[in-house]
Specification:
about 160 residues, mainly beta, 5-stranded antiparallel sheet, about 50% strand, globular
Length: about 160
């Protein structure tokens, strides 16, 4: 699986019995040198993206819903490799940010669900900052755009 941000995608975390005090990492890819992370801190959903020393932080305008809900983000990559990020609570936008540069591969650390293991993407929390396992049912990633390899193959075909 490509763990970078060079494709448009939608990430959804299904929470079950979520309490206002539950916080931690929902999804993390990368390390302190580059990556992205979706986490809950002080009741707010936050997304951070770090590539080539440029950090983007987007925090939800409202507190995370309690009980059963779906939260996450949609990332829409543009042709110039920038992207528009939208944070979501129950499919409703709660925050937006511009990502100046996406990356096909942000790190060799892989993808973690429910924690940010080894080398944390964000300095906003300490350690792997696990989300309570009782409240995180699952995380799904849906890629909504062509992969960069498809774009390269198409460009090569058009040159012949």
């Amino acid at each position: 699986m490509i763990t970078g941000t060079d494709r448009s995608m939608r990430v959804t975390a299904s929470l079950r019995g979520h309490r206002a005090s539950d916080e931690g990492v929902l999804l993390a890819s990368g390390s302190v040198q580059g990556g992205y992370v979706l986490y809950v801190l002080e009741g707010r959903l936050t997304f951070e993206h770090l590539a080539l020393g440029e950090r983007v932080v987007c925090t939800a305008d409202s507190e995370l819903p309690t009980d059963d809900c779906e939260v996450g983000f949609a990332l829409h990559r543009h042709a110039d490799r920038s992207a528009q990020l939208t944070l979501l609570h129950r499919s409703e936008p709660v925050g937006k940010a511009a990502v100046p540069l996406t990356s096909p591969h942000l790190s060799f650390w892989g993808l973690d669900v429910g924690r940010d293991a080894v080398s944390q993407v964000s300095a906003a929390y300490a350690g792997d900052f696990p989300f309570p396992s009782h409240a995180l049912d699952h995380v799904s990633i849906t890629f909504t755009g062509e992969s960069p390899l498809d774009e390269v193959a198409e460009a090569m075909e058009n040159k012949e």
